[in-house]
Amino acid sequence: MTAATHLVGYDDAMKAFDPVFGIEVHVELNTKTKMFCGCENTFGNEPNTQVCPVCLGLPGSMPVTNEKAVESAIRLGLALGCSIRESSRFARKNYFYPDLAKDYQISQYDEPTSYEGELEVVLDDGTVVMIGIERAHMEEDAGKNTHVGGTGGIQGASHSLVDYNRGGVPLVEIVTKPIEGMGERTAEVARAYVATIRDIVRALGISDGRMEQGRLRADVNLSLRPKAADGEDQSAVPFGKRSETKNINSLRAVERSIHYEAGRQAALLLAGQPVVQETRHWHEDTSSTTPGRSKEEAEEYRYFPEPDLLPVEPSREWIEELRATLPEHPAKMRARLREEWGFSDLEMRDAVAADALTLIADTVAAGAAPQAARKWWMGELARTANEQDVTLPELPVTPAHIAELQRLVDEGKINDKLARQALEGVLAGEGSPAEVVASRGLEVVSDDSALEAAVDDALASQPEVLDKIREGKVQAAGAIVGAVMKATRGQADAGRVREIILARAGVEG
Amino acid sequence: MTDWTDPTQVTRASALEMADAMRAGTVTSVELVQAHLDRIAAVDGPVHAFLYVNAEEALATAAAVDADRATGAALPLLAGVPIAIKDVLVTKGMPTTAGSRILEGWLPPYDATVTAKVRAARMPILGKTNMDEFAMGSSTEHSGYGPTHNPWDLERIPGGSGGGSSASLAAWETPLAIGSDTGGSIRQPAAVTGTVGVKPTYGGVSRYGAIALASSLDQLGPCARTVADTAALHEVMGGHDVMDATSLDEPVPSCLEAARDGAANGLAGVRIGVVKELGGEGYQDGVKQRFEEGLDHLRALGAEIVEVSCPSFKYALAAYYLILPSEASSNLAKFDSVRFGLRVERDTIEKTMGATRAEGFGDEVKRRIILGTYALSAGYYDAYYGSAQKVRTLIQRDFAAAFEQADVLVSPTAPTTPFKIGERIDDPLAMYLNDVATIPANLAGIPGMSLPAGVAPEDGLPVGFQILAPAHEDARLYRIGAALEKALVAQWGGPLASLAPELEVAP
Ligand SMILES: [Zn+2]
Predict the structure, then answer these.
(1) Distance of alpha carbon B478 from its chain centroid, rounded?
(2) What integer is the mean pLDDT of A493-497?
(3) Taking CB atoms and an 8 Å limit, are B377 and A304 in contact across chains?
(4) Which residue of B has its CA nearest to A38?
(5) ipTM score here?
(6) Using one digit for the tens of pLDDT, what is the confidence trace for A105-126?
(7) Domains of chain A, CATH where assigned
(8) Lower CB density within 10 Å: C or N end of chain A?
């Protein structure tokens, strides 16, 4: 670090300077096969088991474009409000790196498939921000290096291993135009933008958008410029030198990296020192960035049109067909659902944050009332997920299960407590809620004669209770209810038990 | 007539004659393969056409073909006819080097599409032929494994980059060979060895598994000693391939039928255009003389000869030497020591990559990588690569206009007969001029053929006659080529290769 070792706080930085930022988001598409070969596009396999001459870049091999990936990329472009080029070309981006099998990446350069779009981003307080999209282009992912020995970084490693399973996985890179005028809301807007992209790719079904798995990664460019003098036009002030923070893999980190970078740059500028144009690495553990390559050693990629591939030329009819399959904008869908379900803003926001919206919607579609669906997913299940350190969608329970469980409660077959036990069984893999209720014998005892017998047994050991009730101390019935519940191992309908006790005392319930 | 019991005569037959003889039961594939293996053993020491001889597998393939034939099974036309494959094509189980030390010892785990087609056609593969490193050169002197020598005169070059394939044909080591043509690497070697070679329409033959030099120019094609043999092999190699996005989705041209038609029926009504810019100054006298003689034959066959002008051709060589190195610099990046081939270990990966490439690549390859890297650099791209692409469009327009006036275009294949090994090795520009007549076809993606036109009187060395046709009209090459060949062979009293001096045979 140079002399400006202390950071300026984010709010102070935003008061002193005008921030301009831009975001590049890489989305890994969930196509069955890779971008340019027939290898399976799945994750978590043994290293170098999903490779072929093409994605290993063996001499003589040639790429062939995955039409499904083109379709996904065009749908994404349309969802971002982009125009789709009638003819777009792949280009080679040349650089040497061991994880890049051919030592060039097939990407798109001057003719991206999707260009000039605009995306509506809704902030938590309902403010709508329009983000300009410069382009969304297709490319292939690289493999993965693992550095062995030392600290796990390339410095000090004894050697490195390369896994090419990810090499050739289809990516779409979405590039925004410079975003100006957000002031202190910059970090919030950046986060909301990436969250919106994530929601859109999920709604399109073209990627699971899981940032923690690297399926969606963000690079954030940020620069600060002096505030315009009063009466002057801010947009007339030239941009400052920018840094680009690479490979940010959580929404929280998008926000925090901007906080850090704004503070770091402001401190330099206030100390009269220049901001170096460079790429920087984000460190989750310390919430800070460190320098990567500087602009002076910037790569010379020697782009030229990929001669092994034909141009991508989607017909107008096909594009319109794809446009017709576009899902509702996530923010609009949320507003509509909140209305339909009668959720509060807070309830809605929590459900979104917990990634529960689709689950709730599917549970409602399966017949449950919206609030009931919400309570299950945001209550019992959210707790379980939290305990097991998994996401809600990863729990071994389906919206259909939850709808069925709620139906059993609504029909009085089980009470809430039994329902929780039934859910426990479902999560343990014992079957559907009805099956668990049957196999665990959880159904409530609704047979009055059995309940009356249990009440009479309890009253026999505590005869004073009836007198207390007749004297008006109705709450005394609680002791008998408790005893009956205990005797029936919780399977009695407590309300019905109470009615029987009151009837025995000759009091109307 | 060939005496099929005499091994020295067997290797002088054409591929189609061999196929006929096998069908007639007068010779077996094992006998044919053995005769060629013996010939390779006898002459390839001084010729050095082969980098790898695939004796065991070739004999096994031959034996299987013979066994199937004995059962009366239906077999492909060229089943049992041996073939040599340029080392640019990957062949599973056979080392593949593309003439480079950087790939020494590499065993490809897969077959090129054309290799697979050759296997499916049941043709025994005799081995892999020598070439200029990564097909960069016009003399095969740039092979990492030593030069190939021209069977007409062992002190001379056999052309390049496919000098191994052309020399193996001229030395009677194989009746058929596969070549690759980026700027003339099939046609120019054919010209200087008195053999036939065809560059098909771009996309007519799959490039999958052909180690790329310049992807937008490369095309695989057939090499043989007769036009009809190249036609038969063309039909084996051609056709759409889902593994090559640039391969044409259209039927394989009827090359053999066209060749037979040309030989039988002459060329009445055919318009032949002589390209003004591909001749005259810079062309050897004997080359011009044989070319004119070819024109006389074509006239006698009923063709009408017209002169056409292609003014943009003067920029072709310059454009070619920007596009080729640019694409090559990218195609050759993968030779980085990480996954295959040579590795020269250093303490960082960058240094290891650098040291490997410094040691593994020869001078000509380095020269072109540097040229291409420079031409693609920011700030130079438009002036170099961009302008070269514009020249390409102009050349395509010249061809389009010329093909309005003529059904095919003709020229000498190369300006000179083969020069001496070492003569131009230190003069890259003189070397590049060899391809001045062949390069325009690659820039435009059209098909071209070189067939023997005779020998130059001043040095007794072979001269090539080039025919060019519009894209997708490969069959025209065979029709006109076969007609001209028939007239010339009648004049010579036999195929030109049979006029070459006999090679000394190793004991
Ligand atoms: Zn693959």
Answers:
(1) 16
(2) 83
(3) no
(4) B243
(5) 0.96
(6) 999 999 999 999 999 999 988 8
(7) 3-321 (no CATH), 328-440 (no CATH), 448-505 (1.10.10)
(8) N
